[in-house]
Design brief:
Blueprint lengths: L2 E8 L2 E8 L2 E5 L1 E5 L11 H7 L4 E4 H6 L3 H6 L2 H6 L5 E4 L2 H6 L4 E3 L4 E4 L6 E4 L1 H11 L3 E2 L12 H25 L5 E6 L5 H14 L3 E4 L3 H4 L4 H9 L8 E3 L5 H8 L5 E4 L1 H7 L2 E4 L3 H9 L7 H4 L1 E4 L8 H5 L4 H4 L4 H8 L8 H23 L1
Parallel strand pairs: 4-5, 4-14, 5-6, 6-10, 10-11, 11-12, 12-13, 13-14
Antiparallel strand pairs: 1-2, 2-3, 7-8, 8-9, 15-16
Helix pairs in contact: 6-7, 7-8, 12-18, 13-18
The structure holds one RNA strand of 73 nucleotides.
RNA sequence: CCAGGGGUGGCAGAGCGGCUGAUGCGCGGGUCUGUAAAACCCGUUUAGGUUGGUUCAACUCCAACCCCCUGGA
């Protein structure tokens, strides 16, 4: 039910096509984050569909806490629950082990969380994570892993790699037991900035065998040297014919750098969070984008590639003024007013429109990247 | 015109006879990368209707005036 094809290669970059039970995804692609089954900011599945979003990412840990995988399953799995007929990925909760920090206890068998919602204890093991993910019913599922914080010393990273490898094997075994050919399981490479540990981690995962491979770790680890280099540190040890997923990478310049280093798949909360926090992306420079993709040596400079505009809450006092088609602030390029028109929505409320704007910017960014690679 | 209530930063709104007069909003700046985030951090420069009086000391007490709100004629 799954197939991964490389349509074309441009240097290390790949134009790809991923077939899933819920349709195909053209890569390189970006997964918008819908942690609890919805993109924050009053964005509906219908909005995503209209804008050409191909795939979204939900979170096992969060859905397990609320509303619970049984509820989601009863609602027809994530696809039914979200009213979304296209592909979905679920992250395992591995990242929460890292980001929830002090509320988490890690042992060799799994992790125990104190829920930030009510303080109740929840336990996640490699097996239970996969079981929950089976019920959630996403197309692509991630194994439970151990993500290290930025600057972690070698010893800690080595331990995380070790743990991640063991858990990966257990996830794979559980996935086989479930016998679900409607879900593709990935492996997650850890190792931070230590090349030999990345190699070791990748080798262990290849040994187990996964449909796709992710580059995990805190983003600042990956960018510690440079994005291109940081990504290649891992991709060089990954199989050619499997999807490569850089987890959590999201600045447009990061995406461009990673694509030309051979990454096919991304996700990030940034476009959506930044929209809610008043940062809008616009004026994508397609010529610069093409130049960067065609010349891997060319430095990718954010301010040459696109523009970031700040929007304060006061801008929303008079939506008419900010979002009127005549306002030069938003009519250039992939404008809010364009999205407004696209969505045919009446009075925009709060940050919804800004979120839609940024989503659309990313949709266009990925489309342009594919278009350049296809040329 | 009569009776009662009130005038505090850009706005809303506490408290107090002396110490940096809260707090919220707004505004400005910053942070954000597999979402504990429509969040968080920093800043916002001579803010007490007016004029007098009491007092060592008044935004706080008193008087007059100006203005606003409510009720009445």
């Amino acid at each position: 039910m799954f197939r991964f094809e490389i349509i074309k290669k441009v240097g290390l970059a790949r134009l790809t096509k991923l077939t899933t039970p819920h349709g195909t995804v053209e890569g390189p692609f970006f997964q918008f984050v819908a942690t609890q089954g919805a993109v924050r900011g009053q964005v509906f599945a219908e909005d995503l569909e209209k804008m050409g979003v191909q795939i979204v990412l939900a979170n096992t840990y969060h859905l397990h806490l609320r509303p619970g995988e049984d509820v989601v399953e009863a609602g027809g799995g994530l696809h039914g629950f979200m009213q979304w007929s296209h592909p979905v990925t679920t992250d395992s909760g591995g990242y929460q082990v890292f980001s929830l920090g002090k509320n988490v206890k890690l042992d060799s068998d799994g992790v125990t969380f104190a829920s930030p919602i009510d303080g109740n204890k929840y336990r996640l093991t490699p097996e239970s994570a996969v079981q929950i993910e089976a019920k959630l019913g996403a197309d692509i599922i991630m194994p439970l892993d151990v993500c290290t914080p930025y600057g972690a010393d070698r010893e800690k990273v080595a331990a995380a790699v070790e743990q991640t490898s063991k858990w990966a094997a257990r996830c794979k075994a559980e996935w086989e037991r479930a016998g679900k050919d409607t879900q593709a399981l990935y492996g997650i490479v850890q190792g931070s900035i230590y090349k030999d540990l990345r190699e070791k981690s990748a080798a262990a995962l290849r040994e187990i065998g996964f449909f796709g491979y992710s580059i995990g770790g805190e983003m600042r680890d990956v960018t510690a040297t440079s994005m291109d280099e940081g990504v290649r540190m891992t991709t060089q040890f990954l199989p050619e014919d499997a999807p490569r997923y850089l987890m959590g990478a999201g600045m447009p310049e990061d995406i461009v750098r990673a694509v030309r280093a051979g990454v096919d798949q991304f996700d990030c909360v940034l476009p959506i969070r930044n929209a809610r926090h008043g940062k809008i992306y616009r004026n994508l420079n397609i010529k610069e984008l093409a130049a960067c993709l065609q010349d891997p040596e060319r430095p990718v400079e954010a301010d040459k590639l696109y523009e970031v505009m700040d929007i304060t809450k006061s801008s929303f006092k008079d939506d008419q003024q900010v979002f009127s088609p005549g306002n030069p602030v938003i009519t250039k390029d992939y404008s809010v007013s364009y999205v407004h028109h696209l969505m045919r929505c009446e009075a925009p409320s709060g940050f919804r429109l800004v979120v839609l704007h940024n989503i659309y910017f990313y949709v266009q960014l990925m489309r342009e990247i594919r278009a350049v690679l296809d040329k």
